Amino acid sequence: IIPANYAVRLPSANIEEFPFKDFLSYIPKKVFQNIDKVKTSAKLSMESSIKGSYNLKSGALPNIDLSINIPHSNIKIEGSKLGIKDMAANLNYYYRHTTPDSNRLEIKKLLMDGDGIRFNCTGYANNIATDPYINIQLNSFISLDTLANILPNNTGIIAHGELVANANIKGKRSHINLYNLKNANIKGELMADNILVKIPNQNIFCFLLNSKCTVSSKESGIVLTVDSINANIADSLVLLGKEIMVFAYRLKRQLS
């Protein structure tokens, strides 16, 4: 029997500029064969502050402050046409044992600027232990021409064009699903500039000419708007249209 007041005091810990290269050395080569070819300037720093103790009887945690930081850095794989020119992260986590529901994860910075792809994310999540309230902003860019350069020449795959995607998601996790969107606030936009994708082996052909897709949540469900589309998938599904609007209504029960 564990006494009600039996507790373990946990130490704080800090990591200063731990090189990513040292971390990668622990990954088995059978998982990532080119691990030795990875060149990076990335370093990870972590600061933690733990005040109080862990109660073995009740499971009560101490106050926790955790900060993870990756300063602007780059990654390159020798012999590869792709790399990451800039990446950075700044994440913070807070927990207070007197108000457990107030625990919070903050994404102050999470970005990647690579060859053919860019990504940026900021936001936060409150009460992450139970039903988190999420407020996230996402921005991304993809160049299919650049990414297609890494494919072997014998595949016959053709990819051309640029994609830009933006999204803003607000609401509790329990509300962010297709069956309950009453209190969710979701807005998204996908812009396609002369997208051409052709995969001969799978009989897939898709062409989007200056298309813009928008997604927004309403009380009844999701509204998706597509300017134009021309797609042929496996010679069995053909999609042609302009100014298409699709409604996904919130159902009273899930489809079986």
Write down the secondary-structure element order.
EEHEEEEEEEEHEEEEEE
Helix content: under 10%
Strand pairing plus helix content: what structural class? Answer: mainly beta
Find the count of extended strands (DSSP E, 2+ residues): 16
Terminal-residue CA separation: 47 Å
Low-confidence stretches: 248-256
| CA gyration radius, whole angstroms | 24 Å
Which shape, going by the Cα principal axes? flat
Determine the number of helices (DSSP H or I, runs of at least 4 residues): 2
Strand content: over 45%
Q: Biggest sheet, in brief?
A: 14 strands, antiparallel
Q: What average pLDDT do the residues reach?
A: 77
Descriptive notes:
There is one protein chain. The chain is mostly beta strands and 256 residues long. The chain has helices spanning 20-24, 144-148, and strands at residues 7-9, 14-19, 38-40, 43-51, 53-55, 63-77, 83-95, 104-114, 117-126, 133-143, 158-172, 185-199, 204-208, 211-217, 221-233, 237-249. Strands 2, 3, 4, 6, 7, 8, 9, 10, 11, 12, 13, 14, 15 and 16 form a 14-stranded antiparallel β-sheet that branches. A two-stranded antiparallel ribbon has the order 1-5. The model is unreliable at 248-256 (pLDDT under 50).
Keywords:
16 strands; 256 residues; 4% helix; two-stranded antiparallel sheet; 14-stranded antiparallel beta sheet; flat
